[in-house]
Amino acid sequence: MTNPIRAGLLITRLSLADLWYDKKVSFCIIASIISVITPLLLLFSLKYGVISQLRYQLLLDPQNLEVKTVGNLQFDRSMFDWLKAQPEVGFVIPLTRSLNTQADLLKTSSLFINNVDILPTAAGDPLTQNLPPITNKKQMLLTAPAAEKMAVTVGDTIKMVITRQLARQLEKGITELQVVGIIPESRYNRAAAFVSLPLLIDMEDFYDGYRSDVFITGTGLANPPLHTSFARARLYAKSLNDVAPLALKLRQKQIDTRTQANAIEKVQAIDRVLNFIFSVIAITALLGCVLSLVGSFLSNIERKRRDIAFMRLIGFQSTAIMLYLTLQSMLLSCVAFIISYLLFLMGSQAVNLVLGKNLPAQSVVTQQSVNQQAIGDHVISQLQGEHLLIAFLLTLLIAIIVVILGGRRAVKIQPAESLREL
User: Fold this and answer.
1) 183: which residues sit within 8 A by CB, 6+ positions away?
2) Can you give the pLDDT at residue 372?
3) Distance between CA 173 and CA 277 in Å, rounded?
4) Which one, of 72, 64, 121, 79, lies nearest residue 237 by Cα?
5) What distance in Å separates the CA atoms of residue 404 and residue 325, rounded to the nearest whole number?
6) Residue 2 has what pLDDT?
7) 3 state SS of 371
8) Strand, coil or helix: what is 90?
9) Nearest residue to 395 (alpha-carbon basis) of 342, 344, 334, 341
10) Which residues pair with 120 in a beta bridge?
11) What's the CA gap between 295 and 29, in Å, rounded?
């Protein structure tokens, strides 16, 4: 085991010494590799950064994942069970008739909002994720626009007022609710309140003329009906790619839907166009890189014919010669990639600094996951660690393949050639 180790160390020392001795040739090979890798890294970073930014802008607003059902329908328990079983569905909750989902919110006589949308929420709701859960009928989540208009903060108590006409008389139902959280405007940009589904059902019963233990008036019919079906549903897909398939499934059930399909399709179309453009440029650049490496390494092998023949003469085997050439190509490729990465960092920083000044402040995702996290503003050129690793491995792979193909000629060099040239 000692001899192979010593032989490997010897080959490594010879490779490094030879590269240092031919500094000019090594520099030319490194420069040719850098001239291809750096533009490719910068090009891909622009493509990835732009598309990530556009996708994040859509994901930043969870309403783009919403599949709205049009009209008042009849969704029974079996329909909701079917929806929950669909792989495209990320969240679904029953919703009462549209006329029964509005109320007035009042903090003081001068701080109030009329005709606010009241929507049900539960665990898993993309609009209320990372906010305190609603555990009873006396709690609510306010959107930022509503909270701002009424100067409400978390922990405040406000009144919900709904009005019905019963026996030709107007009656007001009033209840007090505690604000347990504020929904960011980026998730819902209108004045609205999110409550538990039982409270929304109580609202519908009150509008329908029944007595309520929440909106107490002392009048109305007793024993409200058990709700086994609902007019609508709040429905969200798991991802942007699931919106269209989910809407199609609903249309096949004769349920008309509305989605943000146009905005999603625009981003996907841009992604396809940029993929095509990048592919053409990348393939052309890779071919140029391969040809450059082939020319550089083959000419290097030709130039070293006498040295390789002498190595064969003093006892180096074919495998040792191949290892010698492979180590040199890998070392040159590694140095070239490191320098290319440093140049890419400078170019990427310049692009983000110069172009970012002319763009509105926006964030870009760093990974596709359930909780998208932003790394900063004005970022339109970026690469992830896995992208750099793939680029590095491809560089090494191309270099090794070129050396293996060109090294066949080196292996065939006979020791007698060195003697003839002495």
Assistant:
1) 127, 128, 131, 141, 142, 143, 144, 192, 194
2) 37
3) 62
4) 64
5) 9
6) 46
7) coil
8) strand
9) 334
10) 195
11) 10
Residues in the chain: 422
Extract the tokens encoding 279. 């592919």
The Cα–Cα gap between 114 and 87 comes to 38
**Mean pLDDT (whole number) for 83-91:** 93
Confidence check: pLDDT of 360 > 60: no
Q: How many whole angstroms separate alpha carbon 241 and alpha carbon 237?
A: 8
User: How many whole angstroms separate alpha carbon 365 and alpha carbon 149?
Assistant: 31
Per-residue pLDDT, 85: 93
301-350 per-position pLDDT tens digit:
677 777 777 777 777 777 777 787 788 888 888 898 999 899 988 888 88
Tokens read off for 264: 């999603």
pLDDT score at 1: 41
Which region among 11-20, 292-301, 366-375 has the lowest average model confidence (pLDDT)?
366-375
**Which residues on adjacent β-strands are paired with residue 163?**
172
Distance CA 414, CA 363 (A): 62
280 token code pair: 């053409």
Tell me if residue 80 falls in helix, strand or coil.
Answer: helix
Handedness of CA 263, 265, 270, 274 (dihedral sign): positive
% helix / strand / coil in the chain, to the nearest 5? 55, 20, 25
Banded pLDDT at 279 (limits 50, 70, 90) = confident
The torsion region of residue 225 among left (phi > 0), alpha (psi -120 to 50) and beta comes to beta
Nearest-CA neighbor of 343 among 50, 30, 29?
30
Q: Give CA–CA dist 374/370, Å, rounded.
A: 13
Whole-structure pTM value: 0.62
For residue 381, give the 3-state DSSP assignment: coil
Which residue shows structure tokens 């001899």? 3
The answer to whether residues 377 and 356 touch, using CB atoms and an 8 Å cutoff, is yes
Contact criterion met (CB below 8 Å) for 70 and 256: yes
Q: Is the dihedral of CA 11, 289, 275, 373 positive or negative?
A: positive
